[in-house]
Each structure stands twice: as C-alpha cells, then as structure tokens.
Amino acid sequence: MLVVVVTRCLAFLMKPLRQPRVIAEIVGGILLGPSALGRNKQYLHSIFPPKSLTVLDTLANLGLLFFLFIVGLELDLKSLHRAGKKALSIAVAGISLPFALGVGTSFVLRATISKGVDAGPFVVFMGVALSITAFPVLARILAELKLLTTDVGQMAMSAAAVNDVAAWILLALAIALSGTGRSPIISLWVWMAQRCPEGEPVDEMYICATLAAVLAAGFVTDAIGIHALFGSFVMGILVPKEGPFASALVEKVEDLVSGLLLPLYFVSSGLKTDVSTIRGLQSWSLLVLVIFTACLGKIAGTIAVSLCCRMPVREALALGFLMNSKGLVELIVLNIGKERKVLNDQTFAIMILMALFTTFITTPLVISVYKPAKRPSKADYKHRTIDRKNPNGELRILVCFRSTNNIPTMINLIEASRGTGKREGLCVYAMHLMELSERSSVISMVHKTRKNGLPFWNKGLPSGSNQVIVAFEAFGQLSSVSIRPMIAISAMSNIHEDICTSAERKRVAIIILPFHKHQRLDGTLETTRSEFSLVNRKVLERAPCSVGILVDRGLGGTAQVSASNVSSIITVPFFGGCDDAKPSHMGEAPTPDSHDNPNFLLDENFLAEFKHNSSLNSAVKFEERVVKNAAEAMEIIREYHRCTMFVVGRMPEGHVVAGLSPKTEFPELGPVGSLLTSPGFPTVASVLVVQQYQPGSFPNSEIFSEE
Prior knowledge:
By secondary structure, the chain is α/β, with parallel strands linked by helices. It has three domains: 342 residues, Na+/H+ antiporter like fold; 151 residues, HUPs (Rossmann fold), CATH 3.40.50; 118 residues, no CATH class. Helix content is 55%, strand content 9%. An eight-stranded mixed β-sheet has the order 3-2-1-4-7-12-11-8, with helices on both faces. Helix 9 runs parallel beside helix 15. The longest helix is centred in the middle third of the chain and has 29 residues. Pfam families: CHX17_2nd, CHX17_C, Na_H_Exchanger. GO terms for molecular function: antiporter activity.
C-alpha cells in the first residue's frame, strides 16, 4: 500500500512537468530506500525488515516476469524490416557510439571505484546501460507533446523500435544468453491462436496454459543458469501477434502487473540504491563523467547522422534528446548487474542517477528546441457549417465517441442526416477518443496509430476498438455512407486539440460531441466523467467549424434502420440568432418570438425562404407562435415533448430566451438545451445543441473563462 500510494502521489505531482510515470516510480523507490527515509534505521527495520525482503523480491520479480512477457508480446521484430535507411542509420549511430563510450568509461570506473570486478561482463554491462533507449517512455513523451504525427516523431519511433530490439539482443549478450525458443513451442502457440477466432472470447484454458508456461519458462532458464526474465521474454516473442489472442493476454495481465506488482520492483531496486555511497570529489566527478558520456554518445551520435541525412538542425537536436530517454529496461540491466556482482553499490547508485537525470531532462529539452510548425489553414476549406447553396453537395461530419455505448445513437443520427436522394452523399469521420495512460497496451496502440487522423483499419487494436471498427464498417456498407474511423490518444487536458486539428485537416462542416452525462434506466442523466465537460467546452471555443453536442436519450433505440424507412419527429424551436438551426430537412418547427434580436433581418429572410421550401414538402410542418414571455415559450416547447429529438441553437437571441434559464448549469448547452435536459422537463427525446461557426471570432469564450 505504501509503495503504490507514494509512487502514485509522486506521479501526480510530476504530471505538470510532463514527466513519464517511470520517473516517479524510480524516485519513489529511492525515497523509500536507504538514500532518504531509510537513513532512519527504525523506519527501515519496521517497514522493510530483513525477513520481509524475500517476499518483496519474490513479488517484484513475479511482476517483472509477467511484464517482460508483455514486452515480448508487443516487441515488433518486423520493425527492423520496415524501418527505412534513415531510421536504421540513426538507430545504429544511437547504439554504437554510446556503447563505445560506455566501454571507455568502464575502464575509468574499474581503475577507481570498481576495482576487482570481472572485466568482460563489466565492459558489456556499461556499454549496454549507456546505449539503451526506452521505447515505451519515448512513445509516452511523443504522445504527450503531440509530436507523433511530425517528421521528428515518426523518425524517433522508427529508430527507437530498432533500438528496442537491439537493446534486448545486447542484454542477452550481457548475461550470456544462448539458445532459446524451439519450433515445436512456436507451433503450439500458432495452434492456440488459430483456435481463437476473431470476434469471439478467448478460451480461459488457453490463457491459463500460457501464463503457466511463462512461469515454467522462467523456471527452466533460471535452472540452467540464464536469468529467469529471459524465459518469459522469449515466451512473449513466440506468441503470434495476429488475432485476438495476444491482445487478450495483455488485457488480462497488464493492470495487475503495472499497477501493483511492478512498483514493488522499483522499491526493491530503490532499497539497493544508496546515494550516500557517492561521496567525495572523485565519486561525484565520476557521476558527472557517466552522465556526460551517456548524453554525448546518444545525442551526438543521433545528431551527426540526422544532419548527414539532411534533417533540419532543430529536428536533429530534438531527435537526439528524444533518443536519450531511459526507462525500465535500463533498471533491469542495472539490477541484473548488481545481482551478478558486476556492479558494486557505488557504481549502481551512479548508474541509477544517470538514468533518472537523462530521462528527466528529455521533455524540457525537446520543448525548448522544437516546436512543430502549425499547418496553414486550407484555402479550400469553405464549408465550415452545414448551410450551403447546393444541398446535394458532400457533407463532412466528425463524430466523436468515448465508448461503444455512444455508437448506436451516433449511427442513428448519421442515418437520419444522410437524406434519401443525395448524389454526393455523406462523409463521416468517426473518432474514438482514448485517454493517454501508462498502460502498455495504450503505448503499443500509440505506436500502431502514430499517423493520427488516418483510418486505423486492421491495426491489431484491442477488442473494444475492433467492435467499433466492425460496427462502423457494417453501417458504411449498408448505408452507402463513407465512414472513416480514426483514433485520438491524448491526455484529457489537451485531447480537444486532436479534435479541432482533425476537423480542420478533414475540412468537416460540423463536429458532433457526446454530452458528458448518460441516461440511466430511470430516465435521469448521470455523469460519465466530468473531464469530458471541459473537453466539450474547449472544442466549442476553438473549433474551426460548427459544433453539435448530443445529449443521448437512446435516439432510435438500439436498432439501426435505413433513412427511407425511419420515422422520426425532429422538433426545432427557432428563436433566432446566429446559432439557431437552419432546418432545411427537419421536422416540426414551433417558433417562439424571433422579433427581438440583432440578427432580425437575417432571420426574417431565412424564415421566408424556409416557409416557401416547406410548403413544397409534406414531411415538414412549419408553425409560427407569438409569445409574450419565457413561461409561454416553455409551455409551447412542452407540447412537443413526445418527439424523437430536439435540435436547438446553443446561443439563441431575444428577451424570451433570456428569461428561460437565468443560471445555466452547463454553459455548453446554452439556455434552451439546459431547459430540455433539466430533470423538471418531461421528455425522453435526445437533444442536439448546435453552435454555428462564426468566422474570425470565438463568441463564447467569455462564458468559459469566467468559470
């Protein structure tokens, strides 16, 4: 409990600094060990008595065993084939130069603080420790800084993927790994994978058998003198990556391992780290030397090859800093060296501080030297609202969803929007919003979808995403709608940037966002996650097009039917103003007073045109009501509570609207939307609140800044 609480609190405190969680876990381990709190012997003997260390180490190594299995599952050996010559050259330079400098540093250390250690293993361990790049940490930093889609980000990911494979080969060399993995075992996993067809749950027996095999592999490799970790790692490599079997294994194991067991490994490592052993001018000079050679080798080697490949100087610098990040692999290397008596206490402490320092400086250095150029607004991005002269032209919509629960309503809304006789039709970008976390499956997905904003078909995503793909793919084929699934993986604090950037790149006319509350069985609205309310508000502030917020009350039920057969009653209360709907193909439209707003002339012209068009269409009923106050307007709206959906403007104008809802709980819905979603309004209709794009201004930013 102490370990989990301390590491999570440190991770929370370091979040504003944009530091990966591995930094907090290493620091937490050091603080709980003899370097800080452990200086109090009473504390050390009470919390970590000698008899408890065996249990701690056993649990920590069990967690590490399964973590290495997950690493093996997600290690992409094919990246060596896919990496271009440039990425391969950068990776080779980023390994060979620091390895050589590590070898040179090892001779200095052996002559001073590491006298008497075996020369061969020590040289290799030092070379490996300085040449490693932590792929998961790098991916997390790139995603956090939104550099995944840049040239630097893609180059760093490709080079780090190659470096990741090379690091494990070097580590195998460091502990004299010889011969693992026989073809009969590979055949067994292939057979298991084939017995788990796509779209069906993976048999528990296969999961259990595989996890038992991981333990058995660790036992066998340990028994023959090779470290137990490599048995589980090789077992992960042997499992086929295609199909649902590998992702099901990761889902079963990763949360328990990374959330509970792995932090114990960091504390186990921290208990072996005593910074107080670094004393005197010589020791601190050696620490500076190790940090300098580690940074020089990685950064200089990467920059030199990048410049030879004609990369701009700033991009080369950023790439050099990114490749210098360390992580858990570094910690594993150092701990194995400590166990094998290759590294003594002082050398071990120096190397731990080096890994901590090089990773800590990565994010601030990259931010200081590299800011990706903003793409200029597209000149041909003309249709930023759904209103246009040619109603038969293509309509582009960006639909965002957070979970599979949002999908039925979103599909029914798309179906109702496509019309029955449109020639160019509807193009829908369906964006799955995922929170960036430290889970290895999310980091793996970041790697697979680093070209963010492009379709993610058949990328081997987790089962939840596969269901999403299947649902939208089937709908697109049945409805003749162009569906292009996308994925956005970002922190909640800045995922709105992904939404707005994708909307601009794809030139969409409107963004549809789900409201942050969902309907319960008793009809009341319950908060899903309050952070999504802030996301919606930020999108409303910064969107390059119109925005609609959908309050889902089961639009169309769970079934999806074609537009020619669907029977929906869409009610559009039109008060007037720039945000109010332009219901050119909607249903009933009761109209409270529209004669008291600054856009009176525009509204009158629009209403005259709409009256003429609706008189030719039997499916549209136009109705005009005169009201004196907000109470009368509310009574009229209540008459239509049995409709399928209300479509309202977010900020309608006039004194009638001003009296509807003096204090709005959710400013993103506006006064009318707040009324329609309030507990006192008797309706089961869904509500779509629309904010129409206004060129050159963010008219609603004041509301949010005041809050």
